[in-house]
Design brief:
Largest sheet: 5 strands, parallel
Shape: globular
CATH architecture: 3-Layer(aba) Sandwich
Keywords: Transferase
CATH class: Alpha Beta
Structural class: alpha/beta
InterPro entries: P-loop_NTPase
Helix content: 40-55%
Strand order of the largest sheet: 2-3-1-4-5
GO molecular function, one term: transferase activity
Protein name: Sulfotransferase family protein
Number of domains: 1
Distance between the termini: 51 Å
Length: about 290
Amino acid sequence: MQARIRHQFDGGDLPKLEPPRDRRHRPARRAMGVDSGAGQWPPPVRLIHHLACTGGTLISRCIAAQPDTWVLSEVDPLSPFVPGRFLPTDLIGLSRFGSPPADTETQIELFLAGLAVLYAQARRQGEHLVLREHSHGQFHFGEAVAERPTLRAIVGRVYPTRALVTVRHPFDTFLSLQDTGWVQHFSPPTLDEYARRVHAFLDAHAGCPLIRYEDFVADPAATMQRICEGLGLGYNPDFIESFSAIELSGDSGRHGDRISPRPRRAHPPTLEQEACASEAFQTLLDRLDYRLD
């Protein structure tokens, strides 16, 4: 299947790109005179990688407010989260409950076949296709980190990619996971285990530019320009006013349409003691340039 898809994008077989249709952010793009990503052929699939409760929905909504950008939220073709067995529109989910169940490679082929349709549609419309990965199911679910390909590895089989990673202070993220109950998705549900798994996530996405949530809320305009540069997107200087109209799945944290820092959630002092005693957590703070206070 991989070879059958790949030939569509190699050499002279590429179909001509139709003129872009008029989209809601076209005026900002013309005003800025920006067409980042032009000159790369075939156009890349953009990827956003982050873990749960890290402010990823807010950042992704702001990315979706950039010129000619099409964001698909919470993508993971091999996700363990399959809600029930009635999945009439989900071929990957249905294949898992088939008789016999589809293997991993078949599920990946199904995903790439569907992605080919979306990629072609984005090209026809003159849009940049952005996939926001749902990394929680691979790195923070089950008894151990799942040994399977990342979304970047899967998409990279067929398409060029441009990717970045967003993070948030791991202590604040852990507190959010406790509030949602998602800390129970991995075992043991401790701060030390959480930190070990974040290290695995960062290792799997080594080389990607890294954006901190705290930097984004402190200076949204400057940080969004960095994000657009990293993903090869045009920049809409009015995104702070327009992003509130965009809805994406995955808004599990504190809601709202204001971009501003928020106070740390209340927590018992024993959790800070646990953080200080955890070598994995302390090295994670150093790796991401955070402090506990």
